[in-house]
Write a structure and sequence with these properties.
There is one protein chain. The chain is of the alpha/beta class. It has one domain: TIM Barrel, CATH 3.20.20. The chain is about 40% helix and about 20% strand. The protein contains eleven helices and ten strands. Strands 7-6-5-4-3-2-1-9 form an eight-stranded parallel sheet. It has a two-stranded antiparallel ribbon with strand order 8-10. β6, α8 and β7 form a beta-alpha-beta unit. α2 runs antiparallel to α11, α4 packs parallel to α6 and α8 runs parallel beside α9. The radius of gyration is 17 Å and the shape is globular. The termini are far apart.
Length: about 280
């Protein structure tokens, strides 16, 4: 029996909210999530407070998490060397996540560096993470298309994944940043990448609408991907998506899929319901 592995992404859900979520509320919510049994919790980011003011309290939040009774591993997003160095100071963090876009325009907007420059920076961040006994997870963002008119094709994604593998990256996630993936390109990319780079652990960070979540999960799963990013209620997503209903993969939908397919999961459903209730107090409606 296959086991579905879930990374819960409250960081992605929170970062675009303009109204500041009080630090104590973040701590309460994240502690509820740590009890659920997710494999990984994408809890915060070490980036400029000017860029993402919502997450300026990540270090304070981290210092108040109840980590002694959980097996969930913590992931923090970084976008440059300084962020990587800040994350490396916290031994509780097991993964650093770096957004590497196959869209030149988006990479420059996101990190103020070209794709080629970012690849070189990834090598430095990899070393910083490894020195702290952390693993670098690279997101192939805009992995299914972009809104800028930059050239995109499955081959471009394959080529950059190959370059990342050569750079020693062992964990990658294909990120559907604007919700334009479809079963065909999901199927092709995972069926090509997973056997082609068999020493790399691949995951799916899919953005969906209420009507497309199932076909996207099913395509990725059938192509051999068992690691998924999601967020309770589908909170978050990308403001550049054309459809206002496009958001993160809803965790509850992912769990429904797992139950229907009789897949193993480490999630405790009672504690998940508690976390859902806490989410309702955390996110402005």
């Amino acid at each position: 029996m296959h086991k579905i592995q879930i990374t819960e992404c409250p960081r992605d859900a929170m970062q675009g909210i303009k109204e500041f979520i009080p630090t104590n509320q973040k701590i309460s919510y994240l502690n509820a999530l740590l009890k659920v049994g997710f494999e990984v919790l994408d809890f915060g980011s070490f980036v400029s407070p000017k860029a993402i003011p919502q997450l300026k309290d990540t270090a304070e939040v981290l210092g108040n998490l109840e980590l002694d009774k959980t097996q969930t591993k913590l992931l923090a997003i970084v976008a440059n060397l300084r962020g990587a160095q800040d994350a490396a100071k916290h031994k509780e963090i097991k993964f650093q996540g770096f957004p590497f876009s196959v869209s030149e325009t988006f990479q420059k907007r996101n990190t103020n560096k070209s794709i080629a420059e970012s690849l070189e920076q990834i090598k430095e961040i990899r070393d910083i993470a490894h020195s702290a006994d952390q693993e670098l997870l690279v997101y192939l963002s805009m992995g299914f298309g972009n809104p800028y008119g930059d050239e995109w094709s499955p081959q471009i994604v394959l080529d950059w994944a190959g370059e990342l593998s050569k750079a020693g990256i062992k964990s990658m996630a294909l990120a559907d940043t604007i919700g334009v993936s479809n079963p065909e390109n999901i199927d092709f990319l995972f069926k090509t990448l997973i056997p082609g780079l068999n020493d790399v652990k691949f995951g799916a960070h899919l953005h969906t609408t209420p009507n497309t979540w199932r076909e996207k999960v099913e395509a990725a799963f059938n192509a051999g991907c068992f690691r998924f990013d999601s967020a309770i209620k589908g909170y978050g997503g990308c403001p550049m998506a054309k459809d206002d209903l496009t958001g993160n993969m809803p965790t509850e939908k992912l769990l429904t899929f797992a139950q229907e397919k009789n897949l193993e999961s480490s999630v405790n459903m009672l504690r998940f319901e508690t976390a859902v209730n806490e989410a309702l107090h955390t996110f402005p409606i």
